[in-house]
Design goal:
single chain, two-stranded parallel sheet, globular
């Protein structure tokens, strides 16, 4: 199931509807949920609902069938900002504690694997982004620059 939503609560409604309408498929289906980021923005400001909603979703399907993916911060949430702390040190830590080995820490993987540099270098060559803007949201700077 791939659906967009305004917040995690809408995702939950759509998920619950799918579960109700597809009882035969539920035991055969794994679910990856990269959701909750919109709950951390200024309009929603209800980040504390992310983990409980995901836990409620997981309770509707066989144990171990839901894998939440860690949230990533955006350029407006650089290292040291309240938004960075909320996501990286808050929500993602809570997700890891709640879901254990079923939680996928994507943000850390992207940074330590070097993905941003492979993507950002070509973009900088054609002038579409700056090093700081490209790396700021991941909380890491390319070699030779400083975090902002």
């Amino acid at each position: 199931m791939g659906v967009g939503a305004e917040n995690i609560q809408q995702t939950q409604v759509r998920f619950n509807s799918w579960v109700a309408q597809n009882a035969a498929a539920v035991p055969l289906t794994g679910h990856i949920c990269w959701c909750g980021h919109v709950n951390t923005n200024l309009r929603n400001q209800n980040e504390y609902t992310i983990v409980p909603v995901l836990q409620a979703m997981a309770a509707r399907i066989p144990a171990g069938s839901l894998m939440p993916i860690g949230l990533t911060n955006e350029p407006a949430q650089p290292i040291g900002s309240a938004g960075y702390e909320l996501i990286v040190e808050g929500v993602n830590v809570d997700l890891a504690a709640a879901f254990g080995n079923r939680y996928a820490e994507v943000r850390r993987y992207l940074v330590t694997d070097g993905w941003p540099w492979r993507v950002c270098r070509p973009l900088r060559r054609i002038g579409t982004t700056s090093p700081r803007m490209c790396h700021r949201s991941l909380g890491a700077s390319p070699p030779g620059t400083q975090d902002t």
